[in-house]
């Protein structure tokens, strides 16, 4: 290759381009940054609102759970006879003790079977008696069907005794199977609305709580309540006491039916139970985002908590984004023009290099191009290195192909990767499964056909058998005439080597029964044993071969020979049977005495679908 002078450093080129295009880069980065800032602003507000709603829901749930636990405890004490609602003194003291320092409870008491109510007000520390509201008395009687220990939450209801809209927790009390009354705890609606942080001075967010399209909490609610005092409406009608969503001059609530649900990053978990939901609303005065969360802790009316964002939250970011877009478009046009001029010259070597490396990645070595030199020093060095690498890889691939014809691929690759030129592989001991395969009657067949055809038949058979063995993780250590010795887990990790060996034997049986080899039918027998063996190189320093040694190897060959006596195609040792994942595929063939052994051992044969067991 001809050396060229006047090469430039790629670092110098990049630095020069940076200084030329730095102003353009800053402008483009500003545009992208503002776009991201707009999305981040929206997502931050949504995430912050989700956290507030989750905290509010947790507080409301905790309030209900505390009431429920108190109800269940009282019901249990009454059922056990440790507390008697008919003993007014003990009963009143117990109620007072239950809600001491419990500011959540507006009132606690008992609706007796005759419809009277006796209770305690923790705020004023006074007892309250009177006739229970007819609706509550009806509900209390209906709860009798729930039986002992069932506490129910009801949302919401007007209570004449405390003159407030309350949420109640009720449970029936039973003693010796007799209905003693219904314990009820009340929490004012105002206590629940305080769980949602409502700060009228917080710009941009409007919180609200709805029940059945009526407003429980909203910054405009106090003004509405002043103009709609309870004494001027039917206090028995809960929805007459609460304003509707179209009565507070809130355009977002008024157009609730037009909310459009959307996902954001991170996605709103509205598919989860009681999860938050993000919605949008497009009105004439701007774009609103609404975050809501259901509170479904009772069989009564569900409560919907939420907040919506005023369009002013996003207007400033939107205006900055539009201005940045105009600037960014202009900058982008200039940057593209300059980038085309610069890249036209400097990208050609990179394109050639990229095309050559893609061809190299596909393993196409014979047609790899010779990369030309370049004025840029780094590009020129890369071309020289690539050309040298291509030559080395071609030589290495040729050596690997030759090795692969005489050695298992994994062993050949290890020898190539080794820095040791002796070709020695350190011997090691391991547990493995050994498969010995031998053709049936091949000696007789060899006497009746020409030697060249014998080689052709064997090569055709060995080619397909090798693919099956190696496909299941096995390594062929020897071809012994028409026999094959393969091991699983001796060189390379095969976790379920017993399964792999059996699977291979079955596949070989299907192979010889399903195909002919140079127009000849072949049959084979397989012996499989699992045990300890030694794997490594043996031979003279200048002539080595990889093999395996041990009694486990010999036993596999002897099992293969026993097939003839037992009339089977596959025999496996008990050590292999014990490691099978599915032992139902094997059946006991016999207890035999293998040559060299002093005791009999159980051997098993494998059921082969579609193939007779006999040879």
UniProtKB/TrEMBL annotation:
**Where is each Guanylate cyclase domain found?**
433-560
CDD domains the UniProt entry points to: CHD
Q: Which domain of life is it from?
A: Bacteria
Establish whether keyword NAD is in the entry: no
Q: Which InterPro entries match?
A: A/G_cyclase, Adenylyl/Guanylyl_Cyclase_3/4, HAMP_dom, Nucleotide_cyclase
Alphabetized GO MF terms: adenylate cyclase activity
Q: Which Pfam families match?
A: Guanylate_cyc, HAMP
Q: Which GO terms describe its cellular component?
A: membrane
Transmembrane ranges, per UniProt, are 12-34, 323-346
**GO biological process annotation, one example:** intracellular signal transduction
Q: Which Gene3D superfamilies match?
A: 6.10.340.10, Nucleotide cyclase
Q: Where is the HAMP domain?
A: 344-398
Mind listing the UniProt keywords for this protein, alphabetically?
Answer: Membrane, Transmembrane, Transmembrane helix
The record's PANTHER family line, in alphabetical order, gives: ADENYLATE CYCLASE, TERMINAL-DIFFERENTIATION SPECIFIC, ADENYLATE CYCLASE, TERMINAL-DIFFERENTIATION SPECIFIC-RELATED
Q: What is this protein called?
A: Guanylate cyclase domain-containing protein
């Amino acid at each position: 290759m001809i050396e060229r002078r006047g090469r430039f450093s790629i670092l110098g080129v990049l630095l020069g381009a940076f200084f030329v295009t730095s102003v353009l880069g800053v402008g483009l980065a500003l545009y992208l940054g503002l776009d991201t800032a707009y999305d981040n602003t929206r997502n931050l507000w949504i995430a912050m609102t989700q956290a507030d709603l989750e905290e509010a829901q947790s507080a409301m749930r905790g309030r209900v759970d505390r009431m429920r636990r108190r109800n269940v405890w009282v019901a249990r004490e009454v059922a056990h006879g440790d507390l008697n609602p008919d003993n007014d003194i003990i009963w009143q003291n117990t109620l007072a003790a239950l809600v001491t320092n419990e500011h959540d409870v507006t009132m606690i008491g008992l609706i007796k079977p005759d419809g009277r109510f006796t209770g305690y007000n923790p705020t004023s520390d006074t007892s309250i008696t009177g006739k229970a509201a007819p609706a509550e008395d009806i509900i209390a009687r209906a709860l009798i069907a729930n039986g002992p220990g069932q506490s129910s939450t009801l949302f919401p209801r007007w209570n004449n005794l405390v003159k407030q809209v309350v949420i109640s927790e009720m449970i029936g009390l039973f003693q010796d199977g007799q209905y003693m009354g219904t314990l009820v705890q009340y929490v004012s609606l105002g206590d629940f609305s305080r769980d949602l942080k409502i700060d009228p001075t917080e710009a941009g967010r409007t919180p609200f709580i709805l029940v059945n399209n009526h407003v429980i909490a909203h910054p405009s609610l106090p003004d509405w309540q002043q103009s709609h005092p309870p004494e001027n409406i039917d206090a028995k009608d809960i929805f007459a006491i609460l304003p509707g969503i179209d009565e507070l001059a809130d355009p977002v609530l008024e157009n609730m039916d037009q909310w459009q649900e959307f996902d954001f990053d991170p996605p709103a978990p509205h598919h989860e139970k009681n999860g938050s939901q993000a919605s949008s609303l497009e009105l004439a005065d701007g774009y609103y985002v609404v975050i809501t969360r259901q509170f479904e802790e009772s069989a009564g009316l569900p409560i919907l908590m939420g907040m919506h964002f005023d369009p002013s939250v996003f207007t400033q970011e939107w205006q900055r984004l539009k201005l940045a877009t105009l600037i960014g478009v202009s900058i982008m046009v200039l940057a593209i023009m300059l980038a085309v001029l610069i890249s036209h010259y400097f990208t050609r070597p990179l394109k050639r290099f990229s095309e050559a490396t893609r061809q190299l990645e596909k393993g196409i070595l014979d047609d790899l191009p010779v990369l030309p030199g370049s004025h840029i020093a780094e590009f020129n060095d890369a071309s020289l290195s690539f050309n040298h690498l291509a030559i080395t890889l071609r030589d290495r691939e040729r050596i690997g192909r030759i090795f692969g014809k005489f050695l298992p691929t994994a062993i050949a690759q290890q020898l190539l990767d080794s820095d040791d030129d002796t070709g020695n592989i350190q011997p090691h001991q391991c547990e493995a499964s050994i498969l010995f395969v031998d053709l049936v009657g091949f000696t007789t067949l060899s006497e009746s056909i020409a030697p060249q055809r014998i080689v052709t038949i064997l090569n055709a058979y060995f080619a397909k058998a090798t693919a099956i063995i190696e496909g299941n993780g096995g390594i062929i250590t020897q071809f012994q005439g028409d026999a094959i010795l393969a091991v699983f887990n001796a060189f390379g990790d095969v976790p379920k080597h017993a399964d792999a060996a059996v699977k291979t034997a079955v596949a070989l049986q299907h192979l010889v029964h399903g195909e002919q080899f140079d127009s000849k039918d072949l049959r084979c027998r397989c012996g499989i044993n699992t045990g300890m063996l030694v794997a490594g190189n043996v031979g003279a320093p200048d002539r080595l071969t990889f093999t395996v040694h041990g009694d486990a190897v010999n036993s596999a060959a002897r099992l293969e020979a026993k097939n003839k006596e037992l009339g089977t195609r596959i025999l496996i040792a008990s050590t292999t049977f014990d490691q099978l994942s599915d032992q139902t595929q094997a059946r006991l063939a016999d207890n035999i005495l293998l040559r060299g052994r002093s005791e009999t051992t159980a051997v098993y044969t494998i059921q082969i679908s579609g193939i007779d067991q006999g040879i």
